[in-house]
Design a protein that fits this description.
The chain has 436 residues and is α+β, with helices and mostly antiparallel strands. It is 41% helix and 19% strand. It has two domains: 331 residues, Bira Bifunctional Protein, Domain 2 (BirA Bifunctional Protein, domain 2, 2-Layer Sandwich), CATH 3.30.930; 92 residues, Anticodon-binding domain (Rossmann fold, 3-Layer(aba) Sandwich), CATH 3.40.50. The protein has 18 helices and 16 strands.
Length: 436
């Protein structure tokens, strides 16, 4: 097969069983988010370029898929549209566009594809699905707790067995920098380096803090020691010395208290000082979710009270989280899953009118029914087709059955056959399927 016939680099063709598996996961998450009062939001696959430009930072902006102007403007090489990069910028635009019509607070979920002009590699695509929930317009810690609980319920439903919300607070982190006399201007860079603790280790982080961030060796070592300590009591003592530190600890403790009181197991949420998240737009509690058997984090989020304004919407508080649905599905897809086949395969040996009526009646029962559409009338070939379709029952309606007004029902797993009157076939199929 020539290169032109392949899917574009960084994209995938999803065949039937994978499409069904993904749809079941998305539908399940949607039901869970709805149960928490989140409303669905769908936005266009592309946005005006000026809505997206400058919203993601210099490096990320290079990954935006731009769409050239059309018609007489095409030859200019200029772009005026861009494919959706994430669900957050469209959310901010929707709030700016439809704010008067939206409830306050506005709780929405979005499950849909986004596009990034990234370099394709194992597990990284140019088109992939993001799954976000956000609450806009509330400062209440209950909003943060609801997001965490909804995500936890979603992970449980996706059969992510052992997971932990690692919680921290931007307030606590900036208070820690204040304790060490690190300026606000240097703060983001220092936090970005601390965010590498799990990737490069404490020694390498200390080295980078001294060589690139200008910290004295003793300061860098003490700071990393606080953040990397197994027990957070050490860093709590530091933070208790400042008002902002106490405020940060209070919101961490409140989130844990609210979620565990609502039934989240205590081992599934904990204050983890080394969990930094290097993104500057977070303003309060932040968290990442680690799970056994999954690389990296399977969900991440927090509070970002001014991000909507920087993205072009009004200045309103917000919090939210994104599930790494593609990462979860990729790991689960490597496990053996039984493909879904037909409930009933209808062979065609004559008596087509009877068979079409029977197939229609079976579909009315919610069954998945296929009718043989090949040219060959040989039963052996039709049974091979039924087997290829992973059918559970095959319907045979040969000359003898036609003369008697009957059908033969064949269990495709055991080979057992049952001959029944046509008018009893639907009930008999249902009974056989229930018993299998």
């Amino acid at each position: 097969m020539g290169q032109a016939a392949q899917a574009p680099s960084g994209t995938r063709d999803l065949l039937a069983d994978e499409v069904r598996r993904r749809k079941a996961a998305f539908d399940m998450l949607a039901r869970i988010f709805e149960s928490f009062g989140f409303d669905p939001l769908e936005t266009p696959a592309f946005e005006n370029l000026d809505v997206i430009t400058g919203k993601y930072g210099e490096e990320a902006s290079k990954l935006i898929f731009k769409i050239l102007k059309r018609g007489v403007h095409e030859a200019s090489g200029e772009a005026d549209l861009a494919l959706r990069y994430d669900h957050t910028v469209p959310l901010a635009r929707v709030i700016g566009t439809h704010g008067a019509k939206l409830p306050t607070p506005y709780k929405r979920y979005a499950i849909g594809p986004v596009w990034r002009a990234d370099r394709p590699q194992e597990g990284r695509f140019r088109e992939f699905v993001q799954c976000d929930i956000d609450t806009v317009g509330s400062l209440s810690p209950l909003a943060d707790a609801e997001v965490v609980l909804a995500i936890a319920r979603g992970l449980e439903a996706l059969k992510v067995r052992k997971f932990t919300f690692m919680v921290n607070s931007r307030k606590a982190l900036y208070a820690l920098l204040e304790v060490y006399g690190i300026s606000a201007a240097d703060g983001p860079g220092v936090l970005g380096t601390l965010d590498k603790l799990d990737k490069i280790g404490a020694e390498a982080v200390v080295k980078e803090l001294t060589s690139e961030r200008g910290l004295a060796p003793e300061v860098a070592e003490s700071l990393v020691g606080d953040v990397a300590a197994d027990n957070p009591s050490r860093i709590r003592r530091r933070l208790d010395a400042t008002e902002e530190g106490r405020a940060g600890l209070a919101e961490i403790d409140r989130l844990i208290e609210l979620t565990t009181s609502a039934g989240l197991a205590s081992e599934r949420i904990a204050y983890v000082p080394r969990m930094v998240r290097g993104l500057d737009y977070y303003t309060g509690v932040i968290y990442e979710v680690e799970a056994d058997g999954y690389p990296g984090s399977v969900a991440a989020g927090g509070r970002y009270d001014h991000l909507v304004a920087t993205l072009g919407g009004p200045d309103v508080p917000a919090c939210g989280c994104s599930i790494g649905i593609e990462r979860i599905l990729a790991v689960q897809g490597s496990q053996d899953t039984e493909p879904r086949g037909l409930d009933v395969a209808v062979t065609v040996l004559g008596g087509e009118e009877n068979l079409m009526r029977l197939a229609a009646d079976l579909r009315e029962q919610g069954l998945r029914v296929g009718t043989y559409l090949g040219a060959s009338g040989k039963l052996a070939k039709q049974l091979k087709w039924a087997n290829d379709q992973n059918a559970r029952i095959a319907v045979l309606h040969g000359p003898e059955e036609q003369a008697a007004g009957e059908v033969t029902l064949r269990d495709m797993r055991s080979g057992d056959q049952t001959r029944v009157p046509l008018d009893e076939a639907v009930a008999q199929v249902s009974e056989l399927l229930e018993g299998s």
